[in-house]
Amino acid sequence: MDTRRGALAVPKVRRVGFFTPTEPPPESSQRPNRSQSGPVEATTSSSPLSDSPSGNLISPVLIPPSRHHSDNLTSHAAAPVPVPGPAAFRRYLAHDRSLHIGSYNAPDSLLGTSPPSSNGEFSEDSVSLFGFQRSDSTKLSASFPNGGFDLTLAVRAPQEPETKIATASASEGKKKIAEVSGKSESVTTKPQKEKEPKSLKDKTTKAERRAIQEAQRAAKGEGKRHADESGKANPGMAAKKPQPKKERPPVTSSVSEKTAVAVEKEKRMDVPQTQMQYDDKSRVDKAKRRAVVEQTEIKNKVELFLHLPQYERGNQLPNLSSSFFTLDTIHHAVYKVGLQHLAGDISGDNARCIAMLQAFQEAIKDYTTPPMKDLTMDLTTKINGYVSFLIECRPLSMSMGNAIRFLKNQIRKLPVNLSEPEAKASLCSDIGRFIDEKIILADKVIVQHAVTKIRDGEVLLTYGFSCVVEMILLYAHEIGKKFRIVIVDARPNLEGQKLLRRLVTRGLDCTYTHINAISYIMREATRVFLGASSIFSNGTLYSKVGTACVAMVANAFSVPVIVCCEAYKFHERVLLDSICSNELGDPDAVANIPSFITKAKQSKMMDNNKNLQFLNLMYDSTPSEYISMIVSDYGMIPPTSIPVIVREYRRENLLL
Amino acid sequence: MPDVQSMVAEFVNKLRKRKIEGSQATAKCTVELLRSVISHQRVPHANQAAALIDAVKAVGQQLVAANPVELAVGNVVRRVLHIIREEDLSLTTAAMAGLDLLDASDDDDIDNCKGIGYPAMSAAVVAAAARSTLRPPSLQTLLEGTPESATVPYTSSSGADSESKSKSADKSSLTRKLKHDVIEGVNQLIQEISGCHEQIAEQAIEHIHQNEVILTLGSSRTVLEFLCAAKEKKRSFRVFVAEGAPRYQGHLLAKELVARGLQTTVITDSAVFAMISRVNMVIIGAHAVMANGGVIGPVGVNMAALAAKKHAVPFVVLAGSHKLCPLYPHNPEVLLNELRSPSELLDFGEFSDCLDFGAGSGSLQVVNPTFDYVPPNLVSLFITDTGGHNPSYMYRLIADYYSADDLVM
């Protein structure tokens, strides 16, 4: 919380959101795809001015790597840059790619052009940056952007006064005045870097890319050396850290403009990747070739949802479990979680997310860096592999995406000088902290807040099963509030029965009904408590299918709707309907109905009739006007405040 | 007579035990029962209509009491009463016409000819026309006891004379004639009820366009016929069917639709809101239509109607005329609803292990209502066998089918 407050206090941070004059360049559509890492960097940097056209362009000139390298240097660095320059640049490139790979949406990254090996180099600098600055998140992110460049800069560093470095180390402890000024400057390097990799990626062929990688690898060695030197320069610091400040020299207006553009771009990258669209045949085929899980597509697809994966259920599990001992690319803990997701043994967003994170924890514990490889890079690749496996098992929820993003950030930020066991331990503890703070503690805070909204004699209506809501109800009961609960349930999962069982066992007064009867029962309700899978920055609540119906009817009956959602589930995407982004469940679950209608006929019909489809939507989106209040770990807020929270705390969420 | 009594008792029993499902089936059975009641009713020489009305009312009260939620029973009883009154009236006017006491007689004859010329037109309609020429409705006539006494003094005193004269002249023939006419009218009503699907389905082509996406819920034969009629006319469209959770009638409907070759997708009830944004029209079959234009339909309908309103999707209700109820609803969600067995939601005893009855704390109620009420402002259009109507027009439509005397039975 302290850090958060600190972040707020820095006015510059705020400015970013409001002033973003220059419009993103044309390729914006592509951008989001690679973004994962972007968010961190993007939000922070502060430069308000940004009309520079130059920043926007992705100039073709930049394509040949050696060349831009020089461009870079000339434009930004006052000091002559020593050898490592080009390499550093390339490293940045690699970094960018790795970002792409790293993004939580694995299918995409799988399809991505860059082979995993390419990310190797980028990591140390950025990581180290983060590593020492963690205490001040805003600052840190500001400095972060140039992480990729740092090494080159580091080389120049010697020119800079030692004091600078000292400040940097000081910043580790607490605040850094100098840094603010340093920040904008440092940021400046960024646009160019940003640009170049992109264009490179666009235009280079595979061979070229490979060549670049080689160069990077070579450069890395050099970079390391430099890093070591700088590290020696100020022993207090973990590694080569001086970077943020190096940029000193030419702070021209054009530079700041460029910075703004960079910010802009990063912003765009910030937007999480769009999910893979399954109506794109070629990409789906590619993805399939790499898939671990063999899936057969459903024959009778619902046309409206061709863009979502529609696989047959039930046949993957045996395959997977039989190959349990032969598959060595996937860690067994992850494998287990994947199977549990697939079989539906774990449901509920928090549970899934925690299970996944714990599996990763275990995988990291058992991880050893292969010889000749770099931990950061290799581990990211590994995690990517796990994530794509998990996605094959079941599409990730938004909150899991956020958690994965966090993890990748942590990996990227690992100080280079950490030994492998240390790095692993730090990652594991980071994950543990995420689970504790973002999920478990957050739930406790939410319960404390929400309980104040329950008065004696009320009738609370809830839908399906949400663990936060369950905690709230149980806690309210414990502290002696007298109230009645209406549990509304829906086919096919009937999760409400689980909640009903737990509440009834604890001696609460419950009424149980189906969602169809919602307008009958709503007249009795005085408050509606709903769980969430995610809340988007336009205030749209993305949750278990049926939530929207409940909220709508509550709204029609003028019953306040209170949504309980941990802040780590907030997402900067926007969503208007429930069609574009959703998950399809097993259609057979809808088709199979209790025995009093002859089942035999049903299944026969389904198998051989093209005209009959069953649609099992998993989520729907509730427009924000139906939501009276959102209870999150940041307090009780209206849905309109979601974008603010996302903007202000995103970094903190990622960095913890 | 005893057989009629036992028939009535049997039917009442069925109604009580909810053995008859669907308002159309109920309506049909009720009319048939009433027909046999009428045919078996021995009528006195004087006041035959009153005698018939009393008999029908007596049976009707039993039936309504047996299942007050099935409004179709009450509707049909009122329709039959209306037919009796109208037949009686038209007989009276015919008699008067025969005596040339009224200028209106010519008109009446013409009306009668028309009635014969158009068999589709019920005698009741003719009678209604005759009645309106004879006696404009007034508060006083409403307050009068029997229609006969009402008619006679107000038309003309000579009419009364003539009527009594004619009555005494051919009592037996008149008696038979009234009963015969009434049974004719009731038969027509039966035909109308069983034919309402076709009448409604005929209009389908006007309302469904190519590539339309239609959402429906519940299982209604009217809706089925309606959609199939459009399909037969070579329209191709897609249907989403909400499954209708505790009873799964949506699955039945979907099966039938698929059997007729329609593109059908079954969705869960909870997905109604999610899908409504891609739906062009919601079509449902009503259980009953109230006088204010409100609709009682299968459970879950209100949710769909609200969602449709939110997304500006037309919400169309199909209803045969036997579903028009002349009553205004009060708290219909509760008073005109019926709670079904909880076992449809939870198996018997499923939660008994977690309930601690000794401690007295904690309780579990299971609510499983059958119907849902949609207020008139959510309904875009009614399609009945007489055409399309606004919700606000329902009260007028009802005035055509029922006489004010019967509203309270």
TrEMBL record, chain A:
What's the superkingdom here?
A: Eukaryota
A UniProt-annotated Pfam family: IF-2B
**In what ranges is there compositional bias, type Polar residues?**
28-44, 111-121
Q: Molecular function terms in GO for this entry?
A: translation initiation factor activity
Q: What are the coiled-coil residue ranges? A: none
* Start-end of Basic and acidic residues biased regions: 191-231
Sorted alphabetically, which InterPro entries does this protein's record hold? IF-2B-related, IF_2B-like_C, NagB/RpiA_transferase-like
Q: Does the keyword Protein biosynthesis apply?
A: yes
Q: Does the keyword Heme apply?
A: no
Low complexity bias spans: 45-54
Q: Where is this region: Disordered?
A: 1-84, 103-125, 155-283
Q: Which family does it belong to?
A: Belongs to the eIF-2B alpha/beta/delta subunits family.
Write down what this protein is called.
Translation initiation factor eIF2B subunit delta
In which organism is this protein found?
Answer: Camelina sativa
What gene is this protein translated from? Answer: LOC104777813
UniProtKB/TrEMBL annotation, chain B:
Give the matching Pfam families. IF-2B
Q: What is the protein's name according to its record?
A: Translation initiation factor eIF2B subunit beta
Polar residues composition bias: residue spans = 138-155
Q: Name one GO molecular function term.
A: translation initiation factor activity
Query: Known InterPro entries for this protein?
Result: eIF2B_beta_subunit (IPR051855), IF-2B-related (IPR000649), IF_2B-like_C (IPR042529), NagB/RpiA_transferase-like (IPR037171)
Subunit details for this protein?
A: Component of the translation initiation factor 2B (eIF2B) complex which is a heterodecamer of two sets of five different subunits: alpha, beta, gamma, delta and epsilon. Subunits alpha, beta and delta comprise a regulatory subcomplex and subunits epsilon and gamma comprise a catalytic subcomplex. Within the complex, the hexameric regulatory complex resides at the center, with the two heterodimeric catalytic subcomplexes bound on opposite sides.
Q: Does the keyword Transit peptide apply?
A: no
* Tagged with keyword S-adenosyl-L-methionine: no
Per the UniProt record, the source organism is Camelina sativa (False flax)
Compartments where found: Cytoplasm, Cytosol
Which keywords fit this entry according to its UniProt record? Cytoplasm, Initiation factor, Protein biosynthesis
Chain segments carrying region Disordered = 138-173
Family to which the UniProt record says this protein belongs: Belongs to the eIF-2B alpha/beta/delta subunits family.
**Per the annotation, which location comes first and is thus the protein's main one?**
cytoplasm
